[in-house]
Amino acid sequence: MATFLYRLGRFSFRRKALVAAVWAAVLVALGLGALTLSGQLSNSVTIPGTESQRAIDQLTEKFPQANAGGATARVVIEAPAGTTVTDAKGKAAVEALVGQLKTAPKVVAVVDPFQARSISPDQRVALAQVSYGAKAYELTDGDRQALLDTANAGRAAGFTVEFGGDAVQGVPATGATEGLGVAVAAVVLIITFGSLLAAGIPLLTALIGVGTGMAGIFLASGFLELNSNTPILALMIGLAVGIDYALFIVSRYRHELSIGRDPEEAAGRATGTAGSAVVFAGLTVIIALAGLTVVGIPFLGQMGVAAAVTVAIAVLIALTLLPAILGFAGARVAGGRIRLRRKPIETTHGERWARFVARHRIPVLLVALAGMAVVALPALSMQLGLPNDSTAAPESTQKKAYDIASRSFGEGSNGPLLVVVDVSASANRQAALGQAAAAIQKLPDVAAVTPPRVNQTGDTALLTVIPKSGPSSTQTEDLVSAIRTESGSLDAKLSVTGQTAANIDVSEKLSDAMLPYLALIVGLAFVLLMLVFRSVVVPLKATIGFLGSVAATFGAVVAVFQWGWLTDLLGVASTGPIMSMLPILLIGVLFGLAMDYQVFLVTRMREEHVHGAEPQEAMVTGFRHGARVVVAAALIMISVFAGFILAESSLIQSIGFALAFGVLVDAFVVRMTLVPAVMSLLGRGAWWLPKWLDRVLPDVDVEGEKLTKQLDDAPGDDGRELVGASR
Fold first, then answer.
1. Which of 61, 107, 543, 680 pairs with 553 at a CA distance of 20 to 30 A?
2. The model's pTM
3. Are 42 and 227 in contact (CB under 8 A)?
4. Is 715 left (phi over 0), alpha (psi -120 to 50) or beta?
């Protein structure tokens, strides 16, 4: 592979105009396709096969007028102090609002608060329910704005009108604040390279890669139903790995120039050596993200595949477009240095740190492990769930509606359960329906059960159950389970659906999938690293370190987003259960990034060991060569991910924080501290591999060591005769 990449790098360098034109054409074609063919992104989080989804399918078939699966909105109307919604002025205001709601675009039904008797005990608050004929993601910004505009007259009259429900939720988007991470990454690159030109090239290639990937995703949205967070995850991952992969190759290119190679040969060798490591690192990220498809959750699989494709594009750009850009820049990439220090440092910081860790390996190990364990402790109380109006920003209309409804009707009013009653097999359908309603009313945590709505054939009815507890509470989860198990004692079959029940089902499915996915990733990590390092101990150590990074990151996420620590400092507007999809996403993404650092840091240690260096010296030398680039790569990733903490969406905030913190722990605690300490402690034992396994495993030359030896031994200048003979 290294030889092929060497030739590819030289070809791209020589044919720089052709390669650049091809990538420009691809970007323009996908961009035009995205502008003309893109579709609406979805906010829905559904999993086929869950009971809530089966109930929706049943209602769609037998009770279409119920508009199951359509968007809903809860409208809270609060009268001014000293008045009520039942006096003449209040009743007129509520009726006028209901009339306006019925004329809003795509609205098919509005439940009048007076007819539904959804008036608070103090008669100051009324609650109206709005049903749409379209799903939430099918609503446009104009549809949502038209809904919000219906409150203008009531608010002008002094009434408080707020809106909740999925019909109000817009598609999350990135803003200028996320660009701060890229700006910090640029500063890190300038410090690393000491050259504006060298620092600008990784940024340029990363932005082209992300632009290509994002255009492809929006183009695909015209043909597929994609979750609204899909492009944001792809943007987040694509930016980070795109900059990092280019950083590794540009660093090697500058090294080749510094030892006297001509620019074309330097580009070929950089692509053949550092490019080989980039391919392997990219494959680990791609496999981890694409592996999300095996957990059986469609929207999560789509997010993983989209991000994986973006990473694949980043790898292709690093191997083709980057050498072409180096062809335009030539040797100037090594020139124009910005002097950040006056005196050269003979012993690098990385070498000094490695020797310090080697001298104090036992205390360093204990302190690092103890620190990770302490940070991981909050993970023991992690509560998973999906966002609802209670986790919306404090100043949003959703949060205000949630608080008013909770205060006036109880928290359960914000998470009603829809119970589908199938009485088709009952001899006395009316009696069976009444028996079901009475049985549900007797269950714990039930505040109210509305009168049933029956379809035209009389074999299916719909009950609305109002829990006493909020939609994210364990009591509501228990109630959903209790209603579903109640069918065994009734002459009717009960199914529970609605947004609250669907969120519970999705969270349970995601929780059940986490351990199998983690096992898949851990097994994959072990096999891949054993191939690269030809050792059993190194993969075991790397895998355990990865699990420690994940545990510590889970703990930090719980402390911030569930417990509320440092929320003011980080700009987190609200706290609540951790997003159900976050742990699986974090495991997949962090695995790929952790393996990147493992490869770039430990492969040089292995190379020194193979060449006969003593274990301690091999560790120190390998660390000295890899530490600077790994630190720069980690700082870049942390900066890019941290920029998303400033986003408006709580999911995007939590993903950005989790990935930034995960990279911080994995790069600086695990790879830069635990790895040298353990390698120093184990000595030659770190490279132990049974002889029979050594014969079976293929030889993967990630560092391109064989290529380098072949080129150095080949006749002709800079190995050109070798290249010519291969044509």
1. 680
2. 0.78
3. yes
4. beta
